[in-house]
Write a structure and sequence with these properties.
Chain A: One of its GO terms (cellular component) is plasma membrane. Chain A: It is a multi-pass membrane protein. The complex is a heterodimer of chains A (99) and B (540). By secondary structure, chain A is mainly α. Chain A is 78% helix and 0% strand. The longest helix of chain A is centred in the last third of the chain and has 31 residues, at 56-86. Chain B is mostly helical and 540 residues long. Helix content of chain B is 69%, strand content 2%. In chain B, the strands form two sheets. A three-stranded antiparallel β-sheet of chain B has the order 4-3-5. Chain B has a two-stranded antiparallel ribbon with strand order 1-2. The two termini of chain B are 33 Å apart. The chains are: A mainly alpha (99), B mainly alpha (540).
C-alpha cells in the first residue's frame, strides 16, 4: 500500500482536530482536539520517515510525545484551576476581558 | 537490511561543544537547581536563595555570552554546535545577550515585595499565595495566613528564558519545536499566578494556553511537511533541497522534492506558528487579553523577551531555510506587516486600559520590526537586532511603571485614573513619558534610533511601500502615546486617584537601567549599531 494514504489520514485527522478547536466550547474537548492535531503531525512524521528511509522523523515523533505529555500536565492544571474557581470549563464563560 | 530494524554500524558518542553552549546550559542548570531548592529548602529560606541563584546564574550566563563574543564566535569563529542542532553565530549571541539582560532585570521585578500591603506582618510579592487555592475561598485565606508564597516563579522564569535562548539559535526544526515548548509552557503557568484579580489572571492563562497550543500544533504539522519535502530536519539541508541542489538524491527524496505542496504548506504553517509568538496580525488575538490578565511583572518579561526570541527564530528561518522561496513569502509578510502596523496603531487609540494599550502598541511594533525583516539584507538583520534590544528595555520599563501606580484594589490600570499623575509624582510620570516617547519614536530616545535603522534598511532594499505605511502608523501611534502624556501632566488629579507606591531599590534600579538604556541608545546609538552590524551574518 502506498504510504501516501497515511498522509491523507494525517491531514484528515489534523483538520478534524482544527475544526474541533474552533467549534467545541468545552476547554477539555478543545484541548483533546489539539492533542489530535499533534498526533496527526506524528503520523505524518513517521510516514515521511518511512518514505525517506531515515530515522529523523521517528525521533522527532518521540520528542513530540514527550512534549505533548508535558503540555497535558500544564494544560490540565490550568483548566482544572479555572474549573474550580468558576464551576465551568466552557471557553465561552471565560470572558471577563472583552475588546 | 533496512535502517529501522538493524543497527547500521556502531553508534558514535555525540560531540558537544560545551563551551559554545554554556549560556543556555547555565540558565537551564540554574532552573533545575531552583526546582531542587523548592523541594528541599525550608520555606523561609526559599525566596532569598532563589533570587540569589537566579541573579548569579544570569550574570554568569551573560559573562559566558560576552566571552564567546570576545572569542570571535560572533564573526570568524561562528559555528554550528551540538550535532548541527544549534547555531553559535552573531545574531544568536546578540539576541542571547539581550535576552539574558532582560531576564536579569526581570528578576528584580519578580522579586519586588514592597508594592503589596503586608499580609499578617509578612511582605508579599505580586504572585498568588497558592495557585491551586480557589480565589476568595478558605484555602486561599489559610494559605495567605500561613505565609505561603509562590517562589516557583524563579525556576519557571529561568526555564522560559532557557527556551528563549535556544529559540533564536535553533538550527534544526526539532530544536525549534522543543525550544518553542520550553519557552511557552512556563509562561502559561506564570500567567495564572497573579495575587490580585485572580479570575482575570486564570482566564488569561486559559486563553494563552489553548491558543498557544493550537498555534504550536500548526507549527508542528508544518515541520512534518517540511521534513517530508526535504527528508531532513536541519536548516542547511532543507535550504539545499529548496535550492534544487541536495548533496545526494535517493528515491524517496526524488519523489517528494518535486512536490511543492509540501514545501509551500509546510513553510506557511511554520511561519504562522512563529508569527503567533511574535503577536502579528492576524495572529494577535491573544495579546491584549494575556497582557492584561497576567501579573504585570510577567507581562513585562513576556512582552519583552518572547518578542526578541520569536523574531530571532523567524529571522533565521526566513534567511537560512527559506530564502529560496522569498518570492512566495515576501508578499504575504508584506501584508502581515502592514496589517500589524495599522491595526495595532488604530485599535490602540480606543483602549482605556494601560496594559491593553501597551499590548496593542506591541502589535504595531511587531509590524515595524517585520518591515526590517523584509529588507532581506544584512542591514535588515542588524537593524532588527538593534530594534529588539531597544524595544525590550522600553517595554520592561513601561510595565514596571504600571506596577507602581496603585489604589485600594491593586494596580490602577484604567487610564482615567492616571489623570494628573504628573502633578502628584513628577519623577515617575516623567520616566513613563520617556518610555512612551521611545515607543512613539521621538528623536533622542532609543525608539527613534531603532525605527530609523529599520525603516532605512527597508528603504535601501526598495520596500518604500512598507516605509510609507510605517511612518503613517507611527504618526497614528504617536497620537495615543502623547494623549497619555497630556493626561498625566495637563489634567486635574482625581480626588480618589491612585497613589504611587515607593518601591524597594530593586524596582528602582531596574527602572533606572531601563531609562538609562532608552536614553543611551537614543543619544549615542552608534556603538550599539556597530555591534548589531557586526552580528548580522547567519552561519549555515
Amino acid at each position: 500500500m502506498s504510504p501516501e494514504n497515511y498522509l491523507h489520514l494525517a491531514a484528515l485527522l489534523f483538520t478534524i482536530g482544527a475544526c474541533g478547536v474552533l467549534l467545541r466550547r468545552n476547554a477539555i474537548v478543545v484541548f483533546m482536539s489539539i492533542e489530535l492535531m499533534l498526533n496527526a503531525a506524528n503520523l505524518a512524521l513517521v510516514t515521511f520517515s518511512r518514505m525517506h528511509g531515515n530515522l529523523d522523523g521517528q525521533i522527532m515523533a518521540f520528542f513530540v510525545m514527550v512534549v505533548a505529555a508535558a503540555e497535558v500536565v500544564v494544560g490540565l492544571a490550568i483548566i482544572v484551576m479555572v474549573y474550580r474557581s468558576r464551576h465551568s470549563a466552557s471557553v465561552d464563560d471565560a470572558s471577563l476581558m472583552k475588546l | 537490511m533496512n535502517s529501522w530494524t538493524h543497527a547500521q554500524g556502531v553508534l558514535e558518542t555525540p560531540q558537544f561543544e560545551w563551551v559554545a553552549l554554556s549560556p543556555t546550559l547555565i540558565v537551564v542548570g540554574a532552573a533545575v537547581i531552583g526546582v531542587l531548592v523548592e523541594a528541599f529548602a525550608p520555606r523561609r529560606h526559599r525566596y532569598g536563595t532563589q533570587v540569589v541563584l537566579a541573579v548569579l546564574a544570569l550574570a554568569t550566563a551573560f559573562a559566558a555570552v560576552v566571552g564567546l563574543a570576545a572569542d570571535e564566535h560572533a564573526s570568524t569563529q561562528a559555528q554550528v554546535a551540538g550535532m548541527g542542532a544549534l547555531a553559535v553565530d552573531g545574531p544568536a549571541l546578540f539576541l542571547q545577550g539581550v535576552l539574558i539582560l532582560v531576564g536579569f532585570v526581570s528578576v528584580f521585578l519578580f522579586a519586588e515585595r514592597r508594592l503589596e500591603p503586608a499580609e499578617h506582618g509578612r511582605a508579599v510579592d505580586s504572585f498568588a499565595a497558592q495557585a491551586a487555592a480557589v480565589p476568595g475561598g478558605t484555602a486561599e485565606k489559610l494559605a495567605v495566613k500561613s505565609g505561603y508564597t509562590t517562589t516557583e516563579i524563579f525556576p519557571l522564569m529561568l526555564f522560559a528564558l532557557g527556551g528563549m535562548l535556544l529559540f533564536p539559535a535553533a538550527n534544526d526544526l526539532l530544536l525549534l519545536f522543543i525550544a518553542l515548548e520550553v519557552l511557552s509552557l512556563p509562561l502559561y503557568l506564570l500567567c495564572a499566578l497573579s495575587r490580585r484579580r485572580r479570575l482575570l489572571s486564570q482566564e488569561a492563562a486559559v486563553k494563552y494556553f489553548l491558543l498557544g497550543a493550537f498555534a504550536s500544533a500548526f507549527l508542528l504539522f508544518g515541520i512534518a511537511l517540511l521534513y517530508g519535502y526535504a527528508g531532513t530536519l536541519s536548516y542547511a539541508g532543507i535550504a539545499d533541497v529548496i535550492s534544487g541542489a541536495p548533496p545526494a538524491v535517493d528515491p524517496g527524496l526524488a519523489a517528494t522534492m518535486g512536490n511543492d505542496a509540501y514545501l509551500l504548506i509546510g513553510g506557511a504553517l511554520v511561519v504562522m506558528g512563529l508569527l503567533f509568538k511574535v503577536g502579528a496580525v492576524p495572529f494577535h488575538m491573544w495579546t491584549p487579553d494575556v497582557y492584561q490578565g497576567a501579573p504585570t511583572p510577567v507581562t513585562g518579561f513576556m512582552a519583552a523577551a518572547t518578542k526578541v526570541a520569536a523574531f530571532g527564530a523567524l529571522l533565521r528561518l526566513l534567511y537560512v531555510v527559506l530564502p529560496g522561496m522569498r518570492w512566495d513569502w515576501e508578499p504575504v509578510l508584506w501584508g502581515v506587516a502592514i496589517a500589524s502596523m495599522l491595526a495595532g496603531a488604530v485599535i490602540a487609540i480606543t483602549q482605556t486600559d494601560v496594559k491593553r494599550l501597551l499590548a496593542y502598541s506591541s502589535i504595531a511594533h511587531a509590524g515595524f520590526i517585520l518591515a526590517g525583516v523584509l529588507a532581506l539584507s544584512e542591514d535588515g538583520v542588524s537593524s532588527v537586532l538593534f530594534y529588539l534590544a531597544a524595544y525590550s528595555f522600553v517595554t520592561l520599563g513601561a510595565f514596571a511603571v504600571v506596577t507602581l501606580v496603585r489604589d485600594g484594589d491593586g494596580e490602577a490600570t484604567h487610564l482615567s485614573k492616571w489623570a494628573g499623575l504628573g502633578r502628584r509624582s513628577p519623577l515617575l510620570a516623567g520616566v513613563f513619558a520617556l518610555f512612551l516617547l521611545a515607543f512613539a519614536g521621538i528623536p533622542l530616545t532609543s525608539g527613534f534610533a531603532g525605527k530609523f535603522a529599520v525603516f532605512s534598511a527597508a528603504a535601501d532594499a526598495g520596500a518604500m511601500g512598507l516605509v510609507i505605511v510605517g511612518v503613517i502608523a507611527s504618526a497614528i501611534a504617536a497620537f495615543f502615546y502623547v494623549r497619555v502624556i497630556v493626561l498625566m501632566f495637563f489634567s486635574e488629579p482625581q480626588e480618589d486617584g491612585p497613589s504611587v507606591v515607593v518601591p524597594s531599590p530593586m524596582t528602582t534600579s531596574m527602572l533606572g537601567v531601563a531609562a538609562a538604556v532608552t536614553v543611551v541608545l537614543g543619544v549615542a546609538p552608534q556603538y550599539f549599531l556597530d555591534l548589531a552590524g557586526q552580528a548580522g551574518v547567519f552561519v549555515r
